[in-house]
């Protein structure tokens, strides 16, 4: 008599239950959370994200925990992505190289589509110690990268902090405009003036 055939959820002859494959990746869920934040603001819920990606709320809780855990995962992902991106770029000192680097950073912002999600995250960062710590790590990576490209300046790190502050401040100025000028162009105009007039 033949043995019992394994079911589609069993593993070979041992009958071990295999985990179901993820139909939606973690990255897709985190991306969906950003989309939901952009449209719903700080009142977004796990149910909102679940509907957006076609998963149940229970599945999200099982995979990520609560809403704050998803926010922290997004922040951790941003820190790692920033680090890897910066490590892949050549470090060249000089006025031209510095501007090219700053232009690259700002141009990556694009026209500002979805930037409202970034504003929402900043609001959460102001209220959550873990998110603040991760934001500080991300800022430090960018400021260090800017400083590495500033030529012959004993105060290069202070200068890099100032330049980064202009970028961050200009993005918030853009938020209250009518959007007729894209985010990156708006920020670059203000940054260009600062670089040209930097003592």
TrEMBL record:
Residue ranges of the annotated DNA-binding region, renumbered to this chain: 45-64
Where does the record locate the signal sequence feature?
none
The GO terms this record gives for MF are: DNA binding
According to its UniProt record, what is one Pfam family this protein matches?
Answer: TetR_N
- All copies of the HTH tetR-type domain together span 23-82
Q: Which residues form a coiled coil?
A: none
Q: Which SUPFAM superfamilies does the annotation name?
A: Homeodomain-like, Tetracyclin repressor-like, C-terminal domain
InterPro entries with a match to the protein in the record: Homeodomain-like_sf, HTH_TetR, Tet_transcr_reg_TetR-rel_C_sf
Keywords noted in UniProt = DNA-binding
Name of the protein this chain belongs to? TetR family transcriptional regulator
What does UniProt list as this organism's lineage? Bacteria, Pseudomonadati, Pseudomonadota, Alphaproteobacteria, Rhodobacterales
């Amino acid at each position: 008599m033949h043995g019992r055939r394994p079911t589609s959820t069993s593993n070979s002859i041992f009958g071990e239950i295999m985990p179901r494959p993820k139909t939606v990746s973690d990255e897709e869920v985190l991306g969906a959370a950003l989309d939901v934040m952009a449209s719903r603001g700080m009142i977004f819920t796990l149910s909102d994200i679940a509907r957006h990606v076609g998963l149940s709320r229970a599945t999200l809780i099982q995979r990520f925990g609560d809403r704050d855990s998803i926010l922290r995962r997004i922040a951790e992902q941003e820190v790692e992505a920033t680090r890897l991106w910066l490590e892949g770029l050549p470090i060249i000192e000089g006025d031209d190289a510095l501007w090219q680097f700053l232009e690259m950073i700002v141009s990556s912002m694009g026209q500002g589509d979805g930037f409202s999600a970034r504003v929402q995250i900043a609001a959460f960062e102001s209220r959550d110690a873990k998110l603040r710590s991760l934001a500080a790590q991300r800022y430090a990576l960018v400021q260090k990268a800017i400083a590495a490209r500033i030529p012959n300046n004993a105060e290069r790190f202070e200068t890099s902090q100032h330049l980064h502050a202009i970028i961050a401040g200009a993005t918030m100025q853009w938020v209250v405009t009518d959007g007729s000028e894209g985010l990156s162009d708006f920020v670059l105009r203000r940054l260009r003036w600062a670089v040209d007039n930097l003592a």
